[in-house]
Design brief:
12% strand; Rossmann fold; 7 strands; alpha/beta; 7-stranded parallel β-sheet
Length: 272
């Protein structure tokens, strides 16, 4: 029971990696609070966990909602031991999905032929709203939740924060520059805060998953998913539970001398 009785908040815990982390942490004895922007998905995870788990609906991109969420946690549970900043989005504007699929199919054929003629042209076509929403959820949300968590953790001078970044934050991603920018920003934030709060006994680390089989990949055409698998040396997509195991290590006392670092379970897609 590596997290026995520790109060843990997992944002975006209604599906995918967040859900897997919430379930895995509960197995290790954590008192899990599951956040999601949709209450019904958070409650579905809580129902699967059972016991003392609770659901809180909040949009992490809204600082007022985040503040209210942490106030509820403090009232109900007295404090916070572990925060997992997982909430994220992949596709902001589904209206461009059809055009993306067409370009993706063309690019795959051109890659096999050896001549690229179809250009992504993502950045020049991106709207302010699309850019802002991506950064608001990933980067602002990580900041808002971390700020509130530190207020609680600083009272007892202990705690662990795990931020979910991405391999895209390490190597870039040509079809989603806003996503790559947000995830890279999370890494810089992780390093900075880790150095800031180390004297308080609070550890801050990040995880940079590769291609993981979660709903965030649902908008991808089947051929793109297949290409992702073939680009990964282990020959498959990752399972959310494999990321949950990495998060468990970083949140537990087994990582007591680890802070300001990132782990990248990516199947060999990127080796550094």
């Amino acid at each position: 029971m590596r997290l026995d009785a520790r109060v843990t908040l997992v944002t975006g815990g209604g599906s995918g990696i967040g859900r897997a982390i919430a379930l895995r942490f509960a197995e290790e004895g954590a008192r899990v609070v599951v956040n999601d922007i949709r209450r019904e998905t958070a409650e579905a995870t809580v129902k699967e966990i059972g016991g003392q788990a609770r659901a809180i609906a909040a949009d992490v991109a809204d600082s007022a909602q985040v503040r209210a969420m942490f106030e509820e946690i403090e009232r109900a549970l007295g404090g916070l031991d572990v925060l997992v900043n997982n909430a994220g989005i992949g596709e902001v504007d589904p209206r461009g999905r059809e055009a993306f699929h067409a370009k993706a199919q063309a690019r795959i054929g051109e890659m096999m032929a050896g001549t690229i003629q179809t250009h992504w042209d993502v950045t020049q076509a991106m709207t302010d709203a699309t850019w802002a929403r991506m950064l608001a959820v990933h980067l602002n949300g990580t900041f808002y939740c971390t700020r509130e968590a530190l207020k609680l953790m600083s009272r007892v001078n202990r705690g662990a924060i795990v931020n979910i970044s991405s391999v895209a934050g390490l190597m870039g991603i040509e079809v989603a520059p806003h996503y790559g920018a947000a995830k890279a920003g999370i890494l810089g934030f992780t390093r900075s805060v880790a150095r800031e709060v180390a004297t308080r006994g609070i550890r801050v680390n990040a995880i940079c998953p590769g291609w993981i089989d979660t709903p965030i990949l649902d908008p991808l055409p089947p051929m793109v998913r297949m290409l992702a698998e073939r680009q990964t040396p282990l020959g498959r997509l990752g399972d959310p539970r494999e990321i949950a195991n990495a998060a468990l290590f970083l949140a537990s006392d087994e990582a007591s001398f680890v802070t300001g670092q990132w782990l990248s379970p990516n199947g060999g897609l990127l080796t550094i």
